[in-house]
Structure formats: C-alpha cells, structure tokens
Amino acid sequence: MPDVPHREGQARGPLVVGVTGGIAAGKSSFCRAMVALGGVVHLDADAFVHRLLAEDSAVQRAVRERFGGDLFGPDGRPDRTALAARVFGDARARAELESILHPAVRALLAERLERLRRQEGIAIVLLEIPLLAETGRPPWVDRVVTIEAPESVRRARLAEKGFSQAEASRRLRAQASRAERAALADEVIQNATSLAALQAVARARWRAWRKRQE
Question: What residues form DSSP beta bridges with 178?
Fold first, then answer.
C-alpha cells in the first residue's frame, strides 16, 4: 500500500492497528467488539476483495485472462466459491490471484485511511488483514496484533460454518504459521475459549490504546 504521510504540523491521527491471525481465529469478532466501544473504525481487507471481484472491471478482466471464463457466473462476476476451490489447492495459482488482488486492495485501504486521518472522533483504525504475515508489515501501521487459537478449535469453528475437513485443511495449509505471525506482531491475543473472554480482552486493549492517543 502506498505510504500515508504525516504532514508537518498535522494533528495526531488515529492509532492504526493491523489485525491478523489464522482462519477462524476470531479476527472479525475482536474487531466488532472494539468497534462497539466507540471511536473505532474497522477496515476489512476481505471485504475489499469481495468488492473488487464484484465491481472492478480491471480486476475482473485480469482474473478472466488468468483463470478463464468458467469461473464466472451469469452476471459476469467471478464465482468466489469456485475461485477459492481453484486456488487453495494450487500455491502457484493462489500467488497469481494474490498478485492481481493485493495491489488493488492496498490502494483502496490507503485511500480510506487517508480520509479517516482527517476525520474527527476516530481514535483507532483497525485494519483486518488475514495475510499480513505473507505480505509484510507496512511502515504506516503503528501496531500489529495477531489473534490465535489452537488448530483443533479453528477446525471446529470452520465445521460450524459448513467447511469440510478437507477444505479446512487446504485453507489452514495456505496460511502463514503461528510462529510467522507472532514474529510480525507486537502482541499475540489468544482466543481459545469464549466470545465473552475475547470481548473482555478487546475492552482492555481499547482502554490502553485510547489512553495512548490522549
């Protein structure tokens, strides 16, 4: 993502926190809990991916040229389920899809972050980026947290969402390891028990991060 500069004399902007973690670890639940406390904006990289695949003609064209028209629905948009099935079992195909999507996602995030820096009443911006360990920590992110849970817990959560064991295994293998995410992060938050426990952690971090911005 392009740098979002701090101009000379500019008031301190929001704390920018990158939130990452393995699939089904609880990244979105943590972000929702923080947003509910106030003064927090949540930007979800996956939501930007969905938007690009649905609306961006240049991205759609690049996906069609690389992966063929059979992965597109009658509406002319890529079928995300079929596309995921194609790339999660093929590391090269996944890397090629990411090379199409990641620059566009980062440009959108940079645009939104620049606007948020100029708005009043925003203390914290959460950037939920599942592949942060794979793409690297940007210099304009003030802090990185990774949400983690044991693989058995994540598999159970994926099963509740309708994933087969085989599909869960493909998704888990496609991601960076816990050690790689921990090496990137300033803090590791464990989410192996209940939503209430995760919400309590979110409240504690919200108080600490708000205090840092005072």
Answer: none
15-213 CATH fold: Rossmann fold (3.40.50)
**What is the chain's mean pLDDT, rounded?**
90
Is residue 124 a contact partner of residue 203, using CB atoms and an 8 Å limit? no
**Is the Cα torsion angle 96, 98, 101, 106 positive or negative in sign?**
negative
pLDDT category at 194 given cuts 50, 70, 90 is very high
Angle between helices 45-55 and 57-67 (to 10 degrees): 80
Q: What is the sign, positive or negative, of the torsion defined by CA atoms of 132, 135, 137, 140?
A: negative
Measuring CA to CA, how many Å separate 141 from each of 19, 84, 132? 10, 28, 11
CB atoms under 10 Å from CB of 172, counted, come to 17
Going edge to edge, which strands form the sheet with 187-190? 40-44, 124-128, 15-21, 143-148, 187-190
Whether residue 132 contacts residue 143, with contact meaning beta carbons closer than 8 Å, is answered with: no
Domain parsing of the chain, residue ranges = 15-213
C-beta separation of 186 from 20 below 8 A = no
Write the DSSP string, 69-109: GGGB-TTSSB-HHHHHHHHTT-HHHHHHHHHHHHHHHHHHH
pLDDT at 1: 37
